[in-house]
Amino acid sequence: MAVLTSFAKWRKEHNLDGSWGLAWFLANEICDRFYASHGLVPRVIAHDGLGYYGIELDTVACRVCPNESKPLGRITAGGDIENWQSGSTGDHRLNSIDMCERGASEEELVRGAIRHLDLRPIPHKSHVQCRHKRWGDSYKLCFEIATLIALTHDADEIRIWNHPYHVDEKIRALDSQCAMKEHPGAFSIQGGGGEFLLIGDGRVLGTKEENIWESFMLGEPSASIATRLSERLT
After folding, report:
1. Count of CB atoms situated within 10 Å of the CB of 188
2. What is the pLDDT of residues 41-84, one digit of tens each?
3. Which of 163, 212, 225 is nearest to 188 (CA)?
4. How far apart are CA 104 and CA 90, in angstroms?
5. pTM score of the predicted model
6. 64 CB contacts (<8 Å, ≥6 apart)?
């Protein structure tokens, strides 16, 4: 609910051209539905030193799928959908940006993205014993927090990374539990001179450490957590 409210506010206040709000909204909706059950994880990617280049849809390595497979597709920097299973890189066959500009509802945008990516409601095999199932709720909370921060800051104000290429070195440097089996990954959030590392199990590492999963489970709303963490970036 917090993301829907924040996205509705973002739509009223932002020009879609050059903004990443739609991409983050769609990525969060996909993560919320498919991360725990399918092992599908949206990961922020960069391109040739230019910085933020959209959000790739990957599968995590797990007990069911020991090796990561080819990415399923990408949500472009602005929010269009590329299906790399039936199309190719650069093939914007679902113009979500145009849909959003024409006033499509949030439900239409999400349904369109899921249909275009041909995501199945039920995975081929159960992932009940997999890390992404065990850490599903906390990782989805972390993704929601990152999305709420993205919806209130432009890409030129902050940087949010969760791809292993960008965060693995930081995990090894900051997380005393970096050697845990099937580490849940992390989000590196930087901006305005501030920075922190948000581990997928809810721990926040940096100058001030805390656990947002514990805060959430004790009743703090996700929007409040996102606002509080955003203050670290100023």
Report:
1. 22
2. 999 999 776 789 999 999 887 777 777 678 899 999 999 999 99
3. 163
4. 23
5. 0.94
6. 39, 123, 125, 126, 127, 130
